[in-house]
Amino acid sequence: MFRIALSSLRLRKGSFAATFLNVFLGAAILMAFSSLFDTGVADGVSAQDKKTLTTMCYVVDGWGVLIVAFGIAATLNLTVRQRSSEIALLKSAGAVPGQITRMIMAETAVVTLLAAVVAIPVGYFAGKAVVNTLVSTKQVTRGIDYHFGVMALGTGLGVTFLAAAIAAYVTGRRAATISTREALVSSVAGTTKMTKKRIAFGILFLLLGIDAGVLVSTVLKDRGYITMSIAGEACIHVSIGLSLLSPVLLRVASTLVGSLARGFGGTPGYLAQANIRQRSGRMAGVLMPIILFVGMAAGSLYMQVLQNDAVSSGRLVRSQDDKNVETLNFVIVSTIAVFAAIVLINLAVTATVYRRREFGQQRLIGSTPGQVVRTVGFESAIIVVTGLIAGTIAALASIIPFSIATADQAVPDVGPGIYLTVVAIVIALTFAANLGAARRTVREHPLDALAAAA
């Protein structure tokens, strides 16, 4: 199966490029922040500087591992779903589930190895830039020497490989255990059911987020950076929970929002609603990073605004830890937001380009290139609306409890500027990626598209 895995890599460079990019960025992020630990434990570093550097390493690595693993899993899941017919052919030729799982894991291992090695120099310079930022903001002593050692390489390489291996095993096992008939139907119609495990984990993360929010608004009031840290967990947990349940959210949205698309869009709107209802599993891959981006970016930034208001009004005394958390908050938000944005573009382009056969068939039965692009536009609109609603709910899971904890009011007295900025970024990225890929795809002659897809 290893030879088949290598052949798949050669023939599907575009699909595996998406996985490569996600692994590369994830490994670089983990290496960069893990190097803070190497820098903090070096000789000659003061106790306060050590605490600042190691705390930032632990927090960013903790949530970074989860988000990076989630991004890799989303990309692998989309890539494997796109290969349903190939997997069905292998099974009909006699391949057993274990062989298919090992093939997918071998492909992932090769891509992960290449991406992680390329990420080493990027992680080094990114970590050095973070240390220089901490020095310039006077949170660590000027003159501290930057170190990139065992922790950076061990965490960056080890955790990336572990996350990729788990994601590959789970995705491969799922693909290998479905029947040949189901795989063939899925390759044509895109109909796949959510597993019970995925539903269970989605509900579990939602409950963890609710629990964190309740703790913040009750027993953890006025606890400084501890209150903010636990409140941050609420939006992260709820974002992940809603992302896991994203196929269900899309099916609901196709019923509610889809009727508007039919009314305003005619045939393209009708096709958009039908495509989302039928291919909710595949299209949910684009929805996941939108939920993560909106939930984490809006939630974290608004919490920082509430924290600053509490300090300026005298309700909260600002400590050195609070200052470190503020910097840490912006670093986490910016880093993970950039990662989520790139994952969003990556998945959107990959999912749209894969549909070249579908677009070619539509054009052969009479659809114009403009109608195909408009269909993708209406699909993007439904996905964006769903992602914004779910991401807003995730953000509120942190904002409301934190507002109660810091200002004794559930509705915070803050402006909509941050939220509107996040919304504008999501709309711009999603439509640019989907429509740009669709326009490029429909330039190809429909017969050439069918031949290439086959």
Give the overall shape, derived from the CA principal axes. Answer: globular
> Structural class per helix/strand content?
mainly alpha
Give unreliable regions as ranges.
none
Number of strands: 0
**Helix proportion of residues, in percent?**
over 70%
Q: Could you say how many structural domains there are in total?
A: 2
SS strand fraction: under 5%
Which sequence of SSEs, written as H and E, runs from N to C?
HHHHHHHHHHHHHHHH
Question: Multimeric state of these chains?
Answer: single chain
Question: What's the layout of helices and strands?
Answer:
Blueprint: H1 2-11, H2 13-40, H3 47-81, H4 84-92, H5 97-136, H6 150-177, H7 180-189, H8 196-217, H9 225-244, H10 246-278, H11 280-312, H12 320-353, H13 356-364, H14 369-407, H15 417-442, H16 446-453
Describe this structure in words.
With 454 residues, the chain is mainly α. It folds into two domains: 1-190, no CATH class; 193-454, no CATH class. The chain is 85% helix and 0% strand. It contains 16 helices and no strands. α4 (84-92) runs antiparallel to α7 (180-189) and α13 runs antiparallel to α16 (446-453). The longest helix is centred in the N-terminal third of the chain and has 40 residues, at 97-136. It starts with a helix and ends with a helix. The mean pLDDT is 78.
Task: Please tag this protein with its features.
about 450 residues, globular, 2 domains, mainly alpha, single chain
Describe, in short, the structure shown.
The chain is 85% helix and 0% strand. The chain is an all-alpha fold. The two termini are 22 Å apart.
